[in-house]
Amino acid sequence: MIELSEELLLRMYYKMNQARFFEEKLEELEEKGQVHGTVHLAMGQEAAGVMACLALEEGDLVSLSHRGHAQAIGFGLDVNLMMAECLGKETGYCKGKGGSMHIADVENGNLGANGVVGGGFGLSCGAALTQKYQKTGKVVLCFAGDGATDTGSFHESLNLASIWKLPVVFFIENNQYGMSNPVENHMNVENISDRSEAYNIPGLTIDGNDFLDVYNTVTKALRYARAGKGPVLIEAKTYRFSGHSKSDKQLYREEQEVKEWRKKDPLLKMKEYLRENRIFTEKQIQKMENEAIISIEQAVEFAKKSPSPQLDTILADVYA
Ligand SMILES: Cc1ncc(C[n+]2csc(CCOP(=O)(O)OP(=O)(O)O)c2C)c(N)n1
Ligand SMILES: [Mg+2]
C-alpha cells in the first residue's frame, strides 16, 4: 500500500473537482455556441485521467487522448489556458487554433491531446525511446480509449515498446464504448489488458472509478518502466456520463445503464472515502469543492476577456 499524505489527498480531491467543474462549464458554454470545434467530455472518468497523472514524477511526459481534459488537469495544465484554448482565444495553449482536442504543451512534457484515435501510441514510443537513449530516467504515460486499442498502431506500438523495453505506460480508459459501439461488439477479448499477453508485457485491469486503485497501479507501473523493465498496459474500466460528443443522441444505450454507473461516480466514491476515514472534516471538503469551482469561474472569465487571434496570424504555426 502506498502512503498518501494529507497534502496529496487534498490535491487529488481538488483536481478531481476541477476536472468535473471544467467540463460542466464547458458543456454550458458549448450549448451557447461559444466553444470552437468539437468537445469530448470525460465526466465520470475523472479518477482515471486525474489520478494516473498524479502518479507521475516531475519531468515525466504524457500523451493525451481526444477526451483529455481531466488528464490535462491531472498533469498540471493551467485551467485558464485550457479554457482559453477551447474558446479559440489567443491566450490558449495553442493560441486558440487547436481547441479541446489539441491541447498541447510540448516544452513541459504534454505531447498533446490527439484528434487521431490511436495517434498517441507511436508518438509515445518515440518519446520513450528518447528517454531511454538519453538516459533521462523519465517515463511516458500514454492515454487512449478502448476503441483505440483496435487500431494497428496500438499493436505495432506495444510490440515495439516490448522488444525495445521502452519506458512507457499505456493507460487505456475503457469507457465501454467507441462512439456508439459497445466494447463487446468491437473486440473479442474480455479484458483489454489480455492483449498484453501477445507482446509479453504486464497487463492489468483495474477499477477506473476508484481513485486509489488508479493511483496505486499507475505508481507501480511507472516504477517498473522507470527501472528499465519495459512497458506496462493498464486498462481502467470506467464510463462516460455524457454522450460521445455534442451531436450524440445516445440511442445505443439505456438510461438505466447510465443511472447505474452514476452510482459509481468517482467523485462521490472519493468523497465517501474521505468521510469514512475521517481524513477531512465536512468543512474542509466543502472548502476544496468551492475553491475548485472558483478556479473554473476565473478560467472562464480569463478566457472570455482574452483576445481572439489576429487575422494576420492565421498561417503562423500551420505545418500542413
Ligand atoms: C483515426 C481515426 N478514426 C476515427 C476517428 C473518429 N472517432 C473519434 S472518437 C472515436 C471513438 C474512439 O473510441 P475510444 O477509443 O473508445 O475513445 P472514447 O471516445 O470512448 O474516449 C472515433 C472512431 C478519429 N478521430 N480518428
Ligand atoms: Mg471508449
From TrEMBL:
Residues 15-310 form the Dehydrogenase E1 component domain. Keywords: Oxidoreductase, Thiamine pyrophosphate. Gene3D superfamilies: 3.40.50.970. InterPro entries: DH_E1, PDH_E1_Alpha_Subunit, THDP-binding. Its cofactor is thiamine diphosphate. It comes from Acetobacterium wieringae. This is Thiamine pyrophosphate-dependent dehydrogenase E1 component subunit alpha.
